[in-house]
Amino acid sequence: MIRRNVPYSLYDVNILSATDDELMCISSEMGLSLSLEEMRMIVAHFKKKGRNPTDIELQSLGQAWSEHCCYKSSKLTLKEFIFSIDNPNVLSRGDAGVMVFDDDYGYALRIESHNHPSAIEPYGGAATGIGGILRDVVCMGAQPIGLVDPLCFGYINTCKKIPKGIKHPHYLVNGVVSGIRDYGNCVGIPTISGGFFFDDRYNGNCLVNVGCLGIVKREELLSNYASGPGDVMILLGGLTGRDGIHGVTFASTNLTSTSDKDSKGAVPFGDPIVKEPTIHACLEANQKSLITGMKDLGGGGLSCVIGEMAFGVGGCGADVNLDKVPLKENNLTPWEIWISESQERMMITCRPENVQKVLEIFDMWDVNATPIAKTTDTAHIRIFWKGELIFDMNSEFLTSGPVYNRPHIKPKISTKIDEKFPHVKITNDTIKTLLSDINIASKEWAIRQYDHEVRASTVIHPMVGKINHTGPGDASVLMPVPGRYKGLAVAVGCNPWFTEENPYNGGKACVDEACRNIIAVGAKPDALTDCLNFGNPENPERFGEFREAVRGLGEICNDLQLPIPSGNVSLYNETPGGEHILPTPMILICGLIDDIRKAVTADIKNEGNKLFIIGKTKDEMGASLFFRKFGGEKGDVPDVDSKNLKRLMDKMLKTFDKSLIRSCHDCSDGGLIIAIAEMCISGQIGAKIDLSEIGDLCIERKLFSESNTRWIAEVEEKDVEAFKKIMDSDAIYIGKTGGDKLTVKDTDINLTVDEMRSTWNDPIWNLMGGNAE
Amino acid sequence: MKNEDVKVCVLRIEGTSCEDDMYQAFKMVGASPEKVHLKQLIGQTSSSLKRNIEDYDILAFPGGFSAGDYVRGGAIFAARIKSTIGPQIKKFVESEKPVIGVCNGFQTLVELSLLPALNETMSSKSTAVLYRNDSSRFECRPTFLRNDNRGKCIFTSDIPKKKILMIPSAHAEGKLLSMDPKFVDKLVENDQIVFRYVGENGENAKYPWNPNGSLSDIAGICNSIGNVLGMMPHPERVLTRFTHPDWTRGYNSEEGDGLCVFRSVMKKFL
């Protein structure tokens, strides 16, 4: 490195004459996380230019070519299985996807991961995750209306040894929930859905996925690009500092035992009280048609946003006055400013004649707004520091990044042939063991810390049933446009245990579960966004899991014509020693319901009503909660027949439209009996169950199989005929509601609702502290 | 006065994130609400954006986390108001124009000393506080409120006495406390208690029915004239039945329990 003779820090990095060892040394010492092959591509590029790169140019490439920014490992797989799903209702596939809501409005959806930052600093990592996903929705011109946070941790009270440098799940759960609570509540966007997944394989690497929904007038839908040469780029919001440097390169490698110390600076600080007015001001500027494009500063900071906004419009470039960027502290070097991921920042582009009007809006809200660049027709990004050119790169080379066809091994899958069925006598305790597993138990400890009602549009809440005696819901429903009864339903679908034992079936099952949740409230699945959390893609076994899961996911979405207008991939979720997470494709699904007044919840409504199971219960015990709890092994992992799913969803929607179903709940973890128990808990009403009409499976399989595409429905006597007429043999009678007990014929199961409630309600409260209901 | 002639100032600064909901509430009862930034009232904007508090008939403080609530809930918002348009706000209240503060808005009214205001409209020092919930947590949960006002408060004029309403709470600091040992007695004597938390059958509220441990289960109070109401729960979140958490279990009316608070105050302008 040769320091240039200027009154600020700038180095020319000698790569042209460097050996391979020296190239790798440069990559590692500068924190670029680039491979030798990638360093050689850069050498070749600069050889043509006849000069060495500056430090800021190399840093910029490290950002742009990171897994996080350019999807270099996952792109080919996504192209093969997911990108081909077309649907005329997709309005945009920008930073967030946007779908048709009604004739006047679109809705935005996006999910992404904030795994590595949250593993290091759970409070700040989770909070800035919320901040980032809000910006993705805002930069479509959309008002955020709901947050969704599915989280994966080790068991809260795990007895496993926690790897060196990694934090205990109890600490992580507390920190992450507090971070989501403080940021989400402060900006006034309700946290309406989510999920908790506990397994010791998340001990070394927790997952914090953050999703956001928005609503936008279709005529105000905004692009993430400039409109062409001559646009002014205005940097908005927070100041730029040293927090959040090398965030993306850190997120694109495995965690190590010293990540805690080395990478703390990679986690930026969030400030919701800068974010809240920034959202107001951005949306106001858009509503007044003053801006041409908007994009958020997330991974890679300025280095990514400027290139993408300029190049995306059709090969434009930009001239940047980097010394104009407002700073938190004034001794930052140019490269630090260029790649800092400091929070609460947005970039907008506008025509020169509108700059003043835009600045006035931001001044009103006391939000910083500084013109720092303008787009050019040169296809080059040029950076000037006090007049001197310190960076000059072709924007195509910068933004195109490498693409890899990684080797993969098809994973071994679990089957019936090797099945080891656990010998357990089915008693009340069997049911209680499942109900009290923290994957099933009440998440109220977290849910009530999140404001899930702000914006006054939450129609179906995350907890359903009698007030202060509630149970779990399936999907939440929003009424996003005041005065209109059209609703947006949102739910999460994921089963990492299925995906581990059979990634292909697991990928399909995640979508099936997501659809079931939407159907259970009476809405129609419309689109989904996915966060694909997997291990190290350079390991062919891990990459094989990724590929198979994405294949399953893509296939079922193709069959259902369910578009995926946005998504995110998070790889390298591993800890020292090669321990990797469960393969976790997290699905956030949205559904539409024309009249929310027809929506249904899972709590049993009345005594004396009939209960039906819709869909086939099969001998598919692989990866079931019953097996996991009682030592079962292998077995068939539940498959999905997408034609059957589509057919049953259509039938179910007909019965909802005629208001024939009083309560409905999907069968998932724990199987049929846990679904019924939950309906009893939230309705405070018992049920008498008789499973003889299901067929000739053994009772354990009937009770605990987690076969996909199944729901439990409560139907009033007077509606049974009409219900049966639509459902035909797809609905099987399984019993009646009533009394204060849950009993199952031909078993010893005989549990009071109160006993089930406390078994299900208390575990997480007891672990995390606080008063249970 | 026609409903649409009633001008409502929904006051906001950075972090007052519930202004859209408050705006919608007044819209639904036919008034003309406007979201006004404090800077517009204190002259820190271009002339076209300037507003005068005297031109409004109702002043509403929305919920949220004004200025981040970094000192205490509402403290920064109140300090900014006091040091700029404090006297005008006092005049507004003395002219018996209605003022409502919900959640963070209630905290702001207490910090401004517009509540409890036992003997005067606006004391120089605040005499009560909304302290951290007993659970030490943010609590987002449905709560039942009983209208315990005997007739002074203009925001409950259209609500039958002792009527129980479901109005949800969402706060971390909502426990009303005062140094004055006779605080509750004085409130009762002055008819300043407006809403109390009650249990599901109208009985005295224990946690979680009283979500914060507030003295005497108090959820909302008014000033001694009855034109300033502060309450922790959010009536503006239940304008329709369909945002109640249990509406799928059956309902009689499509109107939400919170709307009557806003309808009540509009009666003043008939």
Name the CATH homologous superfamily of chain B. Answer: Class I glutamine amidotransferase (GATase) domain
CATH superfamily of the domain at 2-67 in chain A: Phosphoribosylformylglycinamidine synthase, linker domain
Q: Point out poorly predicted stretches of chain B.
A: none
Shape of chain B: globular
Give the strand order, joined by hyphens, for the main sheet of chain B. 2-1-3-4-13-12-11-7-8
Work out the radius of gyration of chain A: 27 Å
State the distance separating the first and last CA atoms of chain B.
6 Å
Overall spatial form of chain A? globular
Q: Estimate the strand proportion of chain A.
A: 15-25%
Which structural class should the secondary elements of chain A be placed in? alpha+beta
User: Strands of the biggest beta sheet of chain A: in what spatial order?
Assistant: 10-12-9-13-11-14-15
Q: Tally of extended strands of chain A?
A: 32
Order of helices and strands of chain B: EHEHEHEHEEEEEEHEEEH
Architecture overview:
The complex is a heterodimer of chains A (773) and B (270). Chain A is α+β, with helices and mostly antiparallel strands. Chain A has a domain at 2-67: Phosphoribosylformylglycinamidine synthase, linker domain (Helicase, Ruva Protein, domain 3). Helix content of chain A is 34%, strand content 22%. In chain A, helix 8 (169-187) packs across helix 11 (272-287). The mean pLDDT of chain A is 94. Chain B has one domain (3-269): Class I glutamine amidotransferase (GATase) domain (Rossmann fold, 3-Layer(aba) Sandwich), CATH 3.40.50. Chain B is globular and about 55 Å long. The mean pLDDT of chain B is 96. In chain B, helix 3 crosses helix 4 (104-111). Chain B has 270 residues and is of the alpha/beta class. Chain B has a nine-stranded mixed sheet with strand order 2-1-3-4-13-12-11-7-8, sandwiched between helices. Chain B contains six helices and 13 strands.
